[in-house]
Design a protein that fits this description.
Helix content is 37%, strand content 17%. The protein is an alpha/beta fold and 145 residues long. It has a five-stranded parallel β-sheet with strand order 2-1-3-4-5, with helices on both faces.
Length: 145
């Protein structure tokens, strides 16, 4: 597997949760779009979503040895709270892009800091679900050399 797409807590509710902020596309819509984009470029893409910090950490540990070449992650609220996920990314030693559907810098002050952004290759925020595809475009170009 080339690219791992990870979505954190509450992202399973995309399309119905606060559509004024997060839009009307479902997580399945996002996953299909990113997978199709990756496949068109000759890359395999696996999607993983969990509301549990430990499950995300365990998936990142597996990424160390399963052939994952790049991760695209929307950590949801864990971006602002989880040093453990940060440590898992550092342990995995797999490059990653961080995605946020909303512009976290225009929201509550506690959302302005991410424990992941400074170790991410890139950060997409505020582009809606298009941010996933923009991140995938970057990943495709990066992996192509």
């Amino acid at each position: 597997m080339d690219v791992l797409l990870i979505n954190g807590p509450n992202l399973n509710l995309l399309g119905t949760r606060e559509p004024a902020i997060y839009g009307s596309k479902t997580l399945a819509d996002v996953e299909r779009s990113v997978q199709a984009q990756g496949e068109a470029a000759g890359l395999s893409v696996e999607a993983f979503q969990s509301n549990y910090e430990g499950a995300i950490i365990e998936r990142l540990h597996a990424a160390r040895t399963d052939g994952t070449r790049f991760v695209i992650v929307n950590p949801g609220a864990f971006a602002h709270t989880s040093i453990a996920i940060r440590d898992a990314f550092q342990a995995a030693e797999v490059p990653f892009c961080e995605v946020h559907i909303s512009n976290v810098h225009k929201r509550e002050p506690f959302r302005h800091h991410s424990y992941l952004s400074d170790i991410a290759v890139g950060v997409m925020a505020g582009y809606g679900t298009l941010g996933y595809n923009l991140a995938m475009t970057f990943v495709i170009e990066t992996l192509a050399g």
